[in-house]
Specification:
The chain is mainly alpha-helical. The protein has 7 helices and 2 strands, in the order αβααααααβ.
Length: 213
């Protein structure tokens, strides 16, 4: 049976020519789009005091860009992250995909349903599906952050904002709105910071020795 770590290794193996020189700007763009959208949505919801169509579009449409960003972040330091990093990345990628589906459902489907219907829906199996997705997203984010911190090639404070923000966002349907908006800002700022770091590594060999202590 192929292990999760081996599966992630196959993913990076397909991009072997890119592993010594990181110059893929699409990952930087994805990080900026996702980070800016999440942060702006948080600010707008704080000012308005509620969700509205523009923030629903930003929240529901930005998450897939975060998946591309996570791939780029992993590819910059996969060698130092080792097997633990490969497994952590695989869990993070899987959970991010599931979280993307939940974000789409919450922002483009459930908001247009009658509140009584939504409450009834969340009393059934959907609630457990949402909870399982939240738990897996939290686990995947924490594991991936731990792998990045161990590798010490990425700004640790930026990773901290990223993991803290995504942890809050994964629990959106359980937490008070003000806390969720803080999560928006933390995740967005963390992604924008890491996008700047990714851009700084573009077009040059990624440093293999630790850059941050």
């Amino acid at each position: 049976m192929v292990s999760v770590g081996a599966a992630a290794g196959e993913l990076v193996g397909a991009r072997s020519l890119m592993l010594t020189t990181f110059d893929d700007d699409e990952y930087v763009i994805a990080a900026l789009v996702c980070g800016a959208a999440i942060a702006v949505a948080g600010v707008l919801e704080t000012v308005a005091g509620q969700k509205f169509p523009a923030t629903e579009l930003l929240n529901g449409g930005s998450v897939p860009f975060g998946i591309a960003f996570a791939v780029g972040l992993y590819l910059t330091g996969y060698e130092r992250m080792g097997r633990f990093g490969a497994g952590a990345f695989a869990v993070h990628l899987l959970s991010f995909g599931l979280f993307s589906g939940v974000a789409f459902t919450m922002n483009f489907v459930l908001v247009h349903e009658d509140p009584a219907v939504v409450r009834l829906l969340l009393e059934g199996p959907a609630r457990w599906a949402f909870l399982a997705t939240a738990a897996l997203t939290w686990l995947g984010t924490c594991l991936f952050a731990a792998a990045l911190w161990r590798a010490r090639t990425v700004p640790p404070v930026a990773v901290g904002l990223y993991v803290a923000g995504l942890t809050v966002l994964s629990l959106t349907f359980l937490l008070p709105a003000p806390v969720v908006r803080i999560g928006h800002l933390a995740a967005g700022l963390g992604m924008i910071w890491l996008a700047g770091w990714l851009r700084a590594t573009a077009g040059r060999a990624v440093e293999r020795s630790p850059q941050f202590s």
